[in-house]
Write a sequence for this structure.
């Protein structure tokens, strides 16, 4: 996968992950701040209810105080739920109808944390909805120096239910959409910058290097870029191409020296070889018998002369190329030629060589 596509894919994934994380964090921070604000504003609510209306008359609750508190509850609206708890957290009296209460016992640990002044928000159990925890206000009710119970006020009951309604959440859609659009624009700007500063100059550099390679690096490409990130790379490429140019020059010099040496060597060998061929040919004309070894020497000299001729032509032509081809050779003729080459040394050692081969057998030889 090309870097451009990887960058585009990474940008898209980064946008999606960022959008999800940003949305989640925003909702959590907003909810936590809302709960902290509500609990801070109503911190003294249960305390005022307790102090303004003495609740205890002997060992029982005061009906007059209860009537006043529930009247206050009606004035506050359905967003508050008031409960009277015994020291163990059991609900003894509730503002909402008792048949609507689904949890008859409340954990008193959050209430003790609230009374101890720990940082908000502190969430407590909701008697009407056991699966939810909500902010609250609480006050301790004492009777004769002992804890007689707690006044427990759940805050934001109906408001939290309304906020969980999808229709209520629609009002936050423009805010979230605006944040996502800002993130997308930022991603597009970053991609555009990377494309203009890195990807496009990189393509230009590759194109210039390819053009220089087609001309055997005789011309050094400019490799000038505005991006500072590519300056060091371009500098190293220019240095590398300078070395390549120097090596090409050295190869041309060595090739010229090699051709000159081959031409000189061919000329030096051509004259003595011609004399050898002349002597061998004269011998063959004057002597009709015992020409086996002379014929072998004569044919080898002819072959050597042809090789020298080919080398001389290749050395004189700088554009000459070696073309390889397959040539069919008779096996019997090849073995006979080998026998003739070693015939003199075999005779001196009193060794007789017998060559047997199938008639018509051939092999393929690569020849230039």
């Amino acid at each position: 996968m090309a870097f451009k596509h990887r960058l585009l894919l990474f940008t898209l994934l980064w946008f999606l992950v960022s959008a999800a994380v940003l949305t989640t964090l925003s909702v959590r921070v907003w909810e936590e701040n809302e709960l902290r604000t509500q609990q801070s504003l109503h911190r003294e609510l249960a305390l005022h209810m307790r102090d303004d209306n003495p609740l205890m008359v002997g060992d029982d609750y005061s009906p007059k105080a209860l009537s006043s508190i529930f009247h206050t509850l009606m004035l506050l609206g359905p967003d508050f739920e008031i409960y009277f708890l015994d020291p163990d957290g059991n609900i003894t009296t509730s503002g909402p109808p008792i048949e609507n209460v689904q949890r008859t016992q409340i954990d008193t640990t959050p209430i003790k944390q609230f009374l101890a002044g720990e940082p908000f928000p502190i969430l407590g159990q909701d008697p009407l909805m056991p699966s939810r925890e909500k902010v609250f206000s609480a006050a301790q009710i004492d009777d004769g120096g002992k804890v007689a119970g707690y006044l427990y006020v759940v805050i934001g009951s109906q408001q939290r239910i309304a906020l969980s309604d999808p229709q209520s959440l629609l009002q936050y859609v423009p805010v979230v959409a605006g944040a996502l659009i800002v993130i997308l624009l930022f991603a597009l700007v970053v991609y555009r910058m990377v494309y203009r500063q890195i990807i496009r100059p990189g393509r230009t550099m590759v194109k210039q290097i390819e053009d220089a390679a087609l001309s055997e690096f005789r011309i050094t490409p400019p490799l000038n870029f505005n991006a500072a990130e590519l300056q060091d790379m371009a500098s190293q490429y220019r240095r590398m191409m300078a070395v390549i140019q120097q090596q090409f020059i050295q190869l041309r010099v060595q090739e010229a020296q090699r051709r000159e040496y081959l031409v000189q060597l061919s000329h030096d060998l051509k004259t003595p070889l011609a004399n050898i061929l002349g002597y061998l040919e004269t011998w063959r004309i004057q002597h009709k018998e015992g020409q086996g070894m002379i014929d072998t020497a004569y044919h080898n000299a002819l072959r050597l002369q042809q090789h020298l001729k080919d080398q001389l032509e290749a050395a004189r032509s700088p554009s000459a190329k070696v073309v390889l081809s397959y040539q069919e050779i008779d096996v019997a003729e090849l073995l006979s030629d080998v026998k003739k080459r070693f015939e003199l040394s075999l005779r001196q050692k009193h060794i007789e060589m017998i060559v047997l081969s199938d008639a018509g057998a051939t092999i393929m030889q690569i020849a230039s």
